Amino acid sequence: MERFEYFxxxxxxxxxxxxxxxxYATTDYAYPKEWADLANKLAGGxxxxxxxxxxxxxxxxxxxxxxxxxFGVSSIREVYRDSLSIALPMEGLVTTVxxxxxTIDPTLLKDRELxxxxxxxxxxxxxxxxxxxxxxxxIDQVGVNIYERKRHYWVFGFFxxxxxxxxxxxQRINNSxxxxxxxxxxxxxxxxxxxxxxxxxxxxxxxxxxxSRFINARTYPEGRRxxxx
Length: 229
Description:
Layout: H1 7-24, H2 33-41, H3 50-70, H4 77-104, H5 112-116, H6 123-130, H7 132-140, H8 150-174, H9 187-219
Helix pairs in contact: 1-6, 1-7, 3-4, 3-7, 4-7, 4-9, 8-9
């Protein structure tokens, strides 16, 4: 039994390590100079990438988590739960879409000229951007009651519409798409892709709500449910 007493501490150390890697992924040091220079020349820089926006959301969620769980800031508990509920499916979408398209053809997501020139992003950076944020949130949600709320669906829909407008706005300014594959299809198909992505986020949302209930039911017996956030 004594060895299980170390699990909470080890989990927090692991979470802290993942958070550091996520923060590292927001810096130019995580990428080859060529990629960083290309992004910095664009209007909006790295901040117009959905991947980067979801990563910011993940980091913000973990900051809220530490404030609520370790500093006792109960006034933002509901904000934290909302943030966690929204960030999880967004990272689920990032992880799914990136690894599928990257496996099919990396130049669907990355500048073809640089990629064909042999410029590669280190694996640790790819993982820190496209996988570890999801793992971090999954670990953090243990012990937290994630409730399904209508306002979350409104956030997903509103964000989908706004981001659709953002990528078209910056395409006109930069004369290039934030993700190259968007330039291979016409406007109607981009609308369909945006709608499908939004629906997929909602599907992930329902899945993670159910997963949270299942994990907490197994981890916290009936008598310990009061310890759930």
